[in-house]
Write a structure and sequence with these properties.
Blueprint: H1 21-29, H2 34-45, H3 55-61, H4 71-85, H5 90-107, H6 112-128, H7 136-150, H8 158-161, H9 163-171
Length: 179
């Protein structure tokens, strides 16, 4: 386990997000009451449901994870979008997926889970275009190594060590192809 915490005495922002998500949030939520703001913020921006009074009840029912943006929600949304557009418009659906991911990446403030989804999406597009030849396990490994290279402290983050073992496990099983 981790026994010491290293806290910097001074921090500087090297990169500022060019799109101010708080402006969009404040404008969009100016029309909502407090409960709706918290719920929408969780669904759209992957924020916590901690401020919601019903959070304890949702947690005890196991529903709190259903109400926050995750890779499961995005992949479900993309799958529905692909089905609606059909196989003939695969290029359009790929473009829309990329636009939505970049949109959520900026609006979520570059949250770890959205960055992971985005990198996996980029590698899968490169795979489909035959630019790289990596198996699913290799793509998950590449994303994990990219994170560890650029953010070494992510190794002690739950956002890293919780989903990656599951992704590695899922990469061993063959993907079902529609026939």
């Amino acid at each position: 386990g981790v026994f010491s915490e290293f806290v910097p005495s001074k921090t500087e922002k090297i990169f500022l997000n060019p799109i101010n998500a708080s402006f969009f949030k404040n404008y969009a939520f100016s029309f909502c009451d407090e409960k709706t703001k918290t719920l929408l913020s969780s669904l759209l921006f992957a924020d916590s449901l901690y401020d919601l009074e019903e959070n304890k009840a949702l947690s005890s029912l196991g529903l709190s994870s259903l109400l926050s943006l995750s890779g499961l929600h995005l992949s479900f949304f993309f799958r529905v979008m692909k089905r609606l557009l059909g196989e003939k418009r695969e290029k359009l659906s790929n473009i829309l997926e990329g636009v939505f991911l970049v949109f959520f990446l900026f609006l979520s403030g570059f949250r770890y889970s959205i960055k992971r989804i985005f990198l996996l999406y980029v590698l899968s597009i490169l795979q489909r275009k035959k630019i790289i030849d990596l198996s699913r396990l290799d793509r998950v490994s590449a994303v994990a190594l990219i994170f560890l290279f650029f953010e070494p402290y992510s190794l002690i983050s739950a956002a890293f060590y919780t989903p990656f073992p599951l992704l590695f496990l899922l990469a061993f099983f063959p993907q079902k192809r529609d026939s």
